[in-house]
Design a protein that fits this description.
4-stranded antiparallel β-sheet, single chain, 2 domains, alpha+beta, about 5% strand, 4 strands, about 475 residues, Outer membrane efflux proteins (OEP)
Length: about 475
């Protein structure tokens, strides 16, 4: 009985021989070609590079990295845009947007397929083999629309990042303004506290000597407690503001940032701002980002519509059977759009575009309304501040006369304290309204982008 791999005796002799299954020369060539393609493609693969996380917080101790001269508002804003950890993290989205744009421009690779079928049994004489190559044609149909959608999406990311930079710059400017205004108001609060503390000391001595009553000392004690509370509240607020500013500048909480004593905000022309509201959408990064997002979604809708084109794969193939019969020629694979005509994706893309259209209209209305409302509030505050400043000299004069009359024993303790505290209350009212006006001004500057990076620094333009 013959074992596996043996054949019967040859016609010319009685010597048995073995015939192992072996690959045909063409099938060996096919295997070699496949290996060659693999080795050629391997050097183009990207290597893995580790990126370990930091274990130490990236905070600097301020004085070693900041200039010794006091910082103005423009310098504080520039440092915040340069050093804020959150801004640095947001800017990393640039790389992701660029990578996604790169991916959108890459066509799918052609597919190479092949097979080698060694002869195991039967009447054949050689192994069978096949080889073919194909390309997805539908990807070419939607290529331009997909590329356009990715370009708009990448520019939307850049606009979103710029808007985040505006927010950080506005926050830094607001914190610096509040800190400078707080430092300017502290001497007045301390003046009121020191005066009332001196009066309290005198009254306590008079009470101990029996020369004053609790009714006489009570107004001064109440005013002193209010003055102390005002100083403490200001100090607490100033410390909190400094911590927030240090965080924006990437500094440790205990770092000391030297600030100028002058609030040098850019000038405002309210009439010009109102006249330029029609062009606000061209100057606000958040509105531009929404426009770019809408344009990207519109291109995505075009992709969905073009994707109704049936799936089409073109290629060519060659093969040989076990009897050395070689065949070759083109092949086509066509999807039949019987059930799925991409109607679901088209409906989703259409609804998304309608949603973005409504969101842009809402944001545009909100942005315009915010600017108009801030302008109106500033005008109201300015009018009120004018009235309060007009009354301030009278309060100062009354306090001055009260001090003279009290020193000459022509005025009682309660009336003296009331007139003095009224003067300090008027002073604080002026400072409070001035700070409120500065806050509105900083907010308005952020809303219109005055002194901030302009949108013309973005790559490309909206078509």
């Amino acid at each position: 009985m013959l074992g596996r791999g043996y054949v019967k005796l040859g016609a010319t002799g009685n010597r048995a021989f073995t015939q192992e299954p072996r690959l045909h020369r063409s099938s060996k060539t096919l295997c070699c070609a496949a290996l060659a393609i693999a080795f050629v493609a391997a050097p183009g693969c990207a290597p893995y590079t580790p990126l370990p996380l930091d274990r130490v917080p990236p905070l600097a101790p301020a004085l070693t990295v900041l200039p010794e001269t006091p910082l103005g508002l423009a310098q504080v804003t520039a440092l915040a845009l340069e050093r804020d950890p959150d801004v640095r993290a947001v800017r990393a989205r640039h790389g992701l947007a660029d990578a996604q744009l790169l991916q959108s421009g890459i066509l799918p690779n052609p597919m190479l397929n092949g097979a080698v079928l060694p002869l195991l049994s039967g009447i054949g004489t050689v192994p069978a083999w096949s080889i073919g190559i194909s390309q997805d044609i539908k990807a070419l149909v939607t290529y331009r629309a997909k590329r356009r959608a990715a370009e708009y999406a990448a520019r939307q990311v850049y606009a979103d990042v710029l808007w985040q930079e505006w927010q950080v710059a506005g926050q830094a400017r607001q914190l610096a303004v509040d800190l400078i205004a707080g430092e300017r108001s502290r001497p007045l609060l301390m003046e009121a506290f020191d005066l009332l503390q001196r009066r309290s000391t005198v009254l306590q001595q008079a009470l101990a000597a029996g020369n004053a009553t609790l009714v006489t000392a009570a107004p001064t004690q109440v005013a002193l407690q209010a003055a102390r509370a005002s100083v403490q509240a200001l100090d607490q607020r100033q410390l909190s503001l400094r911590h927030q500013l240090n965080a924006l500048l990437g500094l440790t909480p205990d770092a000391v940032v030297p600030l100028a004593t002058v609030i040098d905000l850019p000038p405002l022309d309210m009439t010009a701002i109102r006249a330029s509201l029609d062009t606000l959408a061209d100057r606000r990064p958040d509105l531009l980002a929404l426009r770019l997002g809408y344009a990207s979604q519109d291109a995505t809708l075009r992709v969905a519509i073009l994707s109704q084109f049936p799936d089409l794969v073109l290629g060519g193939a060659g093969s040989s059977d076990n009897s050395k019969v070689i065949n070759g020629g083109p092949n086509v694979t066509v999807g039949l759009p019987i059930f799925d005509r991409n109607q679901g994706n088209i409906a989703i893309a259409t609804a998304t575009r309608a949603q973005l259209h409504a969101e842009y209209a809402a944001r545009l209305a909100t942005a315009t309304g915010q600017v108009g409302a801030t302008l109106a509030e500033m005008e109201q505050l300015q009018a009120q501040l004018t009235v309060v400043r007009r009354d301030l000299p009278a309060a100062r004069l009354a306090a001055q006369r009260a001090a003279g009359a009290f020193g000459a024993s022509n005025l009682d303790e309660r009336s003296y304290v009331d007139l003095v505290t009224n003067r300090f209350a008027k002073e604080q009212e002026v400072m409070t309204m001035e700070r409120a006006l500065l806050d509105r001004q900083v907010a308005l500057l952020t809303l219109i982008g005055a002194g901030l990076p302009a949108v013309d620094t973005l790559p490309g333009a909206v078509k």
